[in-house]
Amino acid sequence: MFLVNAKIARRLLRCRRTLCFSPPSGKASSSRLVLGIETSCDDTGAAVLDEKGAILGESLHSQKEVHLRTGGIIPTVAQQLHRENIERVVQEALERSSVTPGQLSAVATTVKPGLALSLGIGLEFSLRFVRQHNKPFIPIHHMEAHALTVRMLQPVAFPFLVLLISGGHSLLAVARGVDDFLLLGHTLDEAPGDTLDKVARRLSLIKHPQCSTLSGGQAIELLAKDGDRTRFPLTTPMGQTYDCCFSFAGLRNQITMTIMKQEAEEGVKQGTLLTCVNDIAAATQHTIATHLAKRTHRAILFCKAKGLLQSNSPTLVVSGGVASNQYIRKALTLITEMTGLHLLCPPAKFCTDNGVMIAWNGVERLREGKGILPPNVDVCYEPKAPLGVDISAEVKAAAIRLPSVRMKIPN
Ligand code: KG4
Ligand code: ZN
């Protein structure tokens, strides 16, 4: 929970009533307007949305290139870059939308989970902004925002199953409402995007002419297209654990061993581009896709057994940076077609971090009057914050065995 004392909670209730019933002013007379701000990791994002989800203006500053050069995110560097860019990014989003701060109905900002130093910059800026312009503040959970972005693009009724896969997260959850989630499984170690980024670094893909500006995940997807996924057999993680949790650290170890063996065979040192990078990329991508598909398959069977999804139109939403991977999408399509679920993936632009998804979560909360705080509230950021109610132990206890599925994923 956000740290709000009793006095503030009373004010919050008063503020909520005002927000629900006061006639909006200015441009907001036809629609309420929300400014969303995102700084949880390495993207400084801002966007202004109206109540229907129309994007009136947005701006995004990505730190990807800097972090690619330094070989990973250094939190103090990320913090400094957010600090240097946040004012301009917010200003740009407002200018592009032709909305003045006075016309906003609320400001929504990511406050959890994420890198402490990065979250701090967005939160500090936002609290100053809402106090200066006397606007309500809506703290946002980054993963809830990823999960609900799809509803901005098309009507998707609760409840639905969601797989969130990014550089920082890997989880399966049932979205039952704007602030109501059941967590079925999560990663036990690292996230798939993190694994892809580390494998890409270990392979020195930054030296590859086609990959020098790509994230690890993008580089591996590109190289895998011309690779043979069967040349380096890798074991899919957690084959004997019948739950919906994920693990990628052991797989990364298998890949590192493979790389070391190949370096020895080719007689080259670490840091040299191997001739077999395409095949290693293909094997890595295939094994990650298979692991994600299997855990998702079990989550679907669990949800069906417990009646947790819509019976007429059960849906799987996949989001987060790794969800833009077409091969992983195809692996998940195999599973959803077999189990009769609709598969929805927002376009890549909305899968990765941005201000739009935060503003949209603010709109959803504003509509329902949930989690709206007065301008002078004290809110702390939370680097670690689970999503919803964790029922992963119940999923594990159900020990659902999967029917055997041939993961024949077209390249
Ligand atoms: O959601 P996101 O923008 O940031 C967070 O981690 O929250 O995701 C970034 C991650 C990176 O690890 C990147 O390598 C991965 O998403 N990624 C991809 C692809 N594009 C980005 N992974 C696989 N295939 C892609 N096409
Ligand atoms: Zn994210």
What would you say this structure looks like, in words?
The structure is a single chain. The chain has 411 residues and is an alpha/beta fold. Helices cover 44% and strands 16% of the residues. The chain contains 14 helices and eleven strands. A six-stranded mixed sheet has the order 10-9-6-7-8-11, with helices on both faces. The chain has a five-stranded mixed sheet with strand order 3-2-1-4-5, with helices on both faces. A hairpin with a 2-residue loop joins strand 7 and strand 8. Helix 3 (75-97) runs parallel beside helix 4 (116-133), helix 5 (142-148) crosses helix 13 (355-368) and helix 7 packs parallel to helix 9. It is globular, with a radius of gyration of 22 Å. Residues 1-29 have low confidence and may be disordered. Bound molecules: 5'-O-[(R)-(carboxyoxy)(hydroxy)phosphoryl]adenosine (KG4) and zinc ion (ZN).
Briefly, what is this?
By secondary structure, the protein is α/β, with parallel strands linked by helices. The protein contains 14 helices and eleven strands.
Radius of gyration: 22 Å
Oligomer: single chain
Helix content: 40-55%
> What's the total helix number?
14
Number of strand segments? 11
Heterogens:
5'-O-[(R)-(carboxyoxy)(hydroxy)phosphoryl]adenosine, zinc ion
Task: Give me the secondary-structure category.
Answer: alpha/beta
Mean pLDDT: 91
> Which H/E pattern describes the elements?
HEEEHHEHEHHEEEHHHHEHEHHEH
Main sheet summary: 6 strands, mixed
Strand % is 15-25%
User: Strand arrangement, largest sheet?
Assistant: 10-9-6-7-8-11
What best-fitting shape do the alpha-carbon axes yield? globular
User: Low-confidence spans: pLDDT under 50, at least 5 residues?
Assistant: 1-29
